[in-house]
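Have a close read of this protein, sequence plus structure tokens, and explain what the tokens say about the fold. Thanks in advance:
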Amino acid sequence: MNKEKIKSVLNKLVESKKFKTVLYILCAIFILSFVFQAGMMVGFKRASFSRDWGNNYERNFGPRHDMMPRLLADDIRETPNAHGAIGKIIKVDYPNIVVLDKDQTEKVVIIKDDTNILERRGQVTKESLTLDKFIVVIGNPNVQGQIEAKLIRIMPSPEEMGVVSPVDINTKK
């Protein structure tokens, strides 16, 4: 076979409908496997945080006293948010603070030198983070089950904003 004949056969193959269909299917499989892998990585990171948070509970918060009632409760909660917290500061021990999150879990937040702390439109110091302040934290989980804060924003409490919490609704029945 000469080069022209080989080139002609390859052109017919590439331009055929079957070849294009197979190529589209292979591309779709590649994209779907990439998306699946990304989901697996996110799930693994979230599960790792949950495991680390549980394994380091005593180190972060002291011994557990109420573990059995929580395990037997009807409303088993989902895994805690690994990358942040929204709630009230219940302990201050710089560079760490403990936040009572919206799902009633206590999260240790590590404040680093590069952590941005904002209140309204201005930058404030870590000393502005006092007990009972309501904050939103965004950061990265570490292997001790703590959150290394990148951004902390001091917010008005839900009571100041006139928002009723789900806990209040349930207790008023």
Summary: The chain has one domain: 1-158. The mean pLDDT is 80.
